[in-house]
Amino acid sequence: MTSSTAQTAPADDSADDAELRLTVVDREFPVDDPATGDMDLADRQALRRVAGFSTQLTDITEVEYRRLQLERVVLVGVWTGGSIADAENSLLELKLLSETAGAEVLEGLIQRRSRPDQATYIGRGKVEELREEVIATGADTVICDGELSPAQLRNLEERVKVKVIDRTALILDIFAQHAKSREGKAQVELAQLSYFLPRLRGWGGNLSRQAGGRAGGASGGVGVRGPGETKIELDRRRIRTRMAKLRRDIEGMKTGRSTKRQQRRRNAVPSVAIAGYTNAGKSSLLNRLTGAGVLVEDALFATLDPTTRRATSPDGRLFTLTDTVGFVRHLPHQLVEAFRSTLEEVAESDLVVHVVDGAHADPEGQISAVREVLAEAGAGDLPEIVAINKADLADPIELARLQTLVPRSVVVSARTGAGVPELLDMIGAALPHPEVEVSALVPYARGDLVAKVHEHGEVIEVEHTADGTRLRARVDPGLAASLDGFATA
Fold first, then answer.
1. Exposed, middle or buried by CB within 10 Å (0-12, 13-18, 19+), for 479?
2. Which superkingdom heads the taxonomic lineage of this protein's source (predicted)?
3. DSSP letter at 406?
4. Residues 390 and 357 sit within 8 Å (Cβ to Cβ)
């Protein structure tokens, strides 16, 4: 039997023409507009690095003065304490960080030592083994699972003969790729400059190519004879000047953020911060609770800029949900300092929803790392609800064990929505209660006041009478003053 499409088509039409007609017909059907996060994800995937292009310089001492690009890497870590599983989990996390930055991981090595070697981080013998592994795999980068001192970085590069970076530089590179807002870019740049300032070094004659006075020498003048300001000193001075400007800019942006917080306080809107380990599902949970449509990606540090959205508790009270930057083990202190204004969103909130990856191999380690950073940001004493996420992927026995271990916790799945109503009930019960209890008979002409009580207060009893709406509720002092004229005994 011949289809209607084939009957109307000319005999000499090609397969390409038929495919073109079908494409045109398909475009006639309406397509839902993509969310902001979907468009951001498409842009990010379109900017992935192209594999196969070498980034290694002839002179490896120039690595601090060029844009960091990773391709084929070998990972190396030092196991100083704990179990071998802890060391392997740390190296596995470094592998995920490397892949998020756009690298291809070829091999991973672990060295057992009581403490990292002061000269080469992994010891002289392991350096030779690392050099052989680099040659065998054709790697152009070595990433160390720790923060290297300038001397360790220099010694490793001289012996391995390829670019060497540490965990801190890797995380900073990821942040530089993913920062979008003006404040986020400024914070990342400040953290990068703080990290690279003590690691600047010159090469060749550039260390002292500038001369003081009239080119130095005997005719240089009193007090100005000598080599003058060296190139590396000039670089450091420019970096410090740039860092001072970035701090002033971030302080100015902090003022705008605090103004918004004060506006929410005046309106008596409780605030809830979503915190947790990176890639635990914080943005997915925000989308599930508020329909925010922010970017979601199965990668570490996919979103950096905080996002605040309105939400409603089961009893009708309005509150705000803020998605914050994710945390990680050994989070660089430069990032904690640079993102302090962002972390203040957590410290100034009324409640913290701590999201944990229930399918992770070490969820207890993630909880400890997050609580450590929260305490450093001044949010360690805030009320906390632990949301054990990814219930659709995790082992039910492990979820039950974790829920028993962690008090005030709930198992949820941001992907399927399981457990989200229970989480909202816990949030509604944990929100701060309004201070003033009022009884009022509000005329029907002032329905706006009744709406405000339902939106910002906690209604205890409501009754509709012939004279108006009789209310008994708990409200904030400002709304209580507006209801004074209608108060009843």
1. buried
2. Bacteria
3. S
4. yes
Residue by residue, pLDDT tens for the chain (489 residues) are 444 444 444 444 444 444 433 333 343 434 455 666 666 666 655 545 444 444 444 444 444 444 445 578 999 999 888 888 888 888 998 999 998 888 889 999 999 998 999 999 999 889 999 999 999 999 989 999 988 998 999 999 999 999 999 999 998 888 888 887 788 888 889 989 998 888 886 544 444 444 444 544 555 555 555 565 677 788 888 999 999 999 999 888 877 777 776 766 666 788 899 999 988 888 889 888 888 777 677 767 777 777 888 888 887 788 888 888 788 887 777 777 777 766 777 888 889 999 999 998 889 988 998 998 888 878 888 899 999 999 999 999 999 999 999 989 999 999 999 999 999 999 988 988 777 888 889 999 888 888 888 887 888 888 898 888 998 888 888 888 888 888 886
CA distance 89 to 361: 8
At 309, list the tokens: 């959205």
Is 393:359 a contact under the CB 8 Å cutoff?
yes
| DSSP alpha helix (H) spans, 326-446 | 333-338, 340-347, 363-376, 396-405, 420-430
- The answer to whether 413 and 381 have CB atoms below 8 angstroms apart is no
* Structural tokens at position 11: 């005999």
The reply to whether the predicted model has a pTM over 0.90 is no
Provide CB contacts within 8 A for 238, sequence distance 6+: none
Nearest Cα to Cα of residue 303 among 169, 389, 179, 182? 179
Residue 188 class from Cβ within 10 Å (0-12 exposed, 13-18 middle, 19+ buried)? buried
Alpha-helical regions (H) of 101-211: 124-137, 150-160, 167-178, 182-196
Torsion of Cα atoms, 393 then 396 then 399 then 404, to 10°: 170
CA 88 remoteness from chain centre: 23
Contacts of 233 (CB under 8 A, 6+ apart): none
DSSP lists the bridge partners of residue 354 as 275, 386
Complete DSSP assignment for 378-391: T-TTS-EEEEEE-T
